[in-house]
User: Which sequence fits this backbone?
């Protein structure tokens, strides 16, 4: 299963990432990071239900710092 | 009261700004980016919205380049003290505010030196050349005001920035007096740093300022602490804007600033500038016909001036004039040295000071006429 949660270091990056993906018409949602992964992140992450890898690459191209990808529980 | 001290702080504030300030305490009163609840996320969204508005105003390509500070002074201190190290040299103009001069004086004891470039108010070529002559192999930074906070004349900052870059020197624009009044295009002119206050031409409240960091070579931090990010790391985050935003941000200030920046965008900077300069032209034309009134510049125009005009009255101290206007006509102006001894030394007004008039979009021609009437009666 694709890891659909993109972990970013700050809530500003989460917002910036969502704005970029909106431009590419890729659906994304800012969500609370699962507790087990909160150590390195800001507490918020980006849930990209479809084309997560594409979204990941787009964000990297736009200078968004990504600190990891994890699977979303219940998906 | 007729308020003509808008260079210090704009007053009144737009109603939308007052509403946003109060609303923030009801709707956006949580720690952004840390706690997981809805209000925390809503607050973070509001802050991001403000970063977006600022990007629009200054043509910045990335919201994370926008740092919130307590004011322009903190922004300037962050740049100056974050870059300059022992042996480094800095160049400033001869009309800089104490918020530039004093940090540099402090750094002198740490082995930092600085030079002061002479400004030629009506000659951009000579001014740029003056900066060029101050550069040496140790020069790391140029800090330059966009416009004099006392006399209003603009500096050719776009050219000075380009000159600095061609010499491998970084450029910091002090936009305390120009943000919201003069166009500032960060992407086009590639300023490394822009420092502004929220409470002046941007019509926000006091206690909120902006630092634009448009470079990947980040200055050292002035303060460190909790950012809500990389919390396991003992060291300050190295990414923007968290690197410079330790502690709880001034959320009410940011919410109000967002609204005030929208107000400025809606009015249009060109319109604001043109209107205020026209008000000052009226003052200038009338004052220039009064023998005992001394003016220090040529007639204000939109190409050469920010909307600030200073004058003095022969035989009277500037404090006396301001006091007379306040007591007899309820006119609020600023007298004295305006925290800019450099500018007053340059213009030979250090002993008596000057009276400064600075209008806002809320100033009316009727108010300006009352000022003119008051000064005519005073002579």
Assistant:
């Amino acid at each position: 299963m694709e890891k659909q949660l993109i972990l970013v270091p700050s809530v500003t990056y989460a917002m910036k990432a969502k704005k970029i993906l909106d431009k590419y018409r890729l659906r994304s949602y800012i969500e609370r990071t699962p507790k087990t992964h909160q150590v390195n992140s800001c507490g918020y992450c980006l849930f990209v239900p479809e084309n997560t890898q594409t979204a990941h690459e787009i964000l990297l191209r736009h200078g968004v710092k990504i600190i990891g990808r994890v699977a979303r529980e219940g998906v | 009261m007729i308020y003509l001290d808008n260079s210090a702080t704009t007053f009144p504030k737009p109603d939308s700004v007052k509403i946003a300030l109060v609303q923030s305490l009801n709707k956006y009163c949580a720690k952004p980016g840390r706690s997981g609840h809805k209000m925390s996320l809503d607050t973070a969204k509001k802050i991001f919205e403000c970063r977006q508005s600022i990007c629009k105003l200054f043509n910045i390509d990335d919201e994370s380049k926008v740092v919130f500070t307590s004011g322009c002074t903190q922004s300037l201190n962050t740049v100056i003290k974050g870059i300059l190290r022992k042996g480094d040299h800095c160049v400033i103009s001869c009309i800089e505010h104490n918020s530039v001069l004093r940090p540099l004086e402090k750094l002198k004891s740490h082995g930092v030196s600085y030079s002061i470039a002479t400004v030629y108010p009506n000659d951009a070529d000579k001014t740029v050349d003056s900066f060029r002559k101050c550069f040496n192999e140790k020069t790391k930074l140029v800090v330059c005001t966009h416009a004099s906070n006392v006399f209003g004349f603009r500096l050719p900052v776009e050219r000075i920035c380009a000159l600095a870059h061609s010499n491998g020197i970084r450029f910091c624009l002090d936009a305390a007096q120009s943000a919201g009044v003069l166009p500032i295009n960060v992407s086009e002119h590639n300023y490394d740093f822009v420092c502004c206050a929220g409470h002046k031409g941007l019509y926000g409240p006091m206690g909120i300022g902006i630092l634009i960091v448009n470079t990947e070579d980040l200055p050292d931090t002035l303060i460190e602490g909790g950012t809500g990010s990389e919390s396991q790391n003992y060291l300050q985050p190295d990414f923007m804007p968290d690197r410079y935003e330790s502690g709880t941000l001034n959320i009410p200030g940011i919410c109000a600033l967002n609204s005030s920046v929208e107000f400025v965008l809606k009015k249009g900077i060109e319109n604001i500038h043109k209107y205020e300069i026209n008000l000052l032209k009226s003052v200038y034309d009338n004052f220039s016909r009064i023998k005992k009134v001394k003016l220090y510049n040529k007639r204000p125009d939109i190409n050469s001036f920010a909307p600030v005009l200073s004058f003095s009255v022969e035989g009277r101290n500037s404090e006396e004039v301001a006091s007379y206007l306040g007591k007899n006509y309820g006119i609020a102006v600023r007298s004295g040295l305006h925290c800019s001894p450099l500018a007053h030394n340059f213009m030979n007004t250090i002993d008596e000071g000057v009276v400064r008039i600075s209008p806002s979009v809320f100033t009316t021609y009727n108010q300006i006429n009352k000022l003119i009437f008051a000064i005519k009666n005073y002579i």
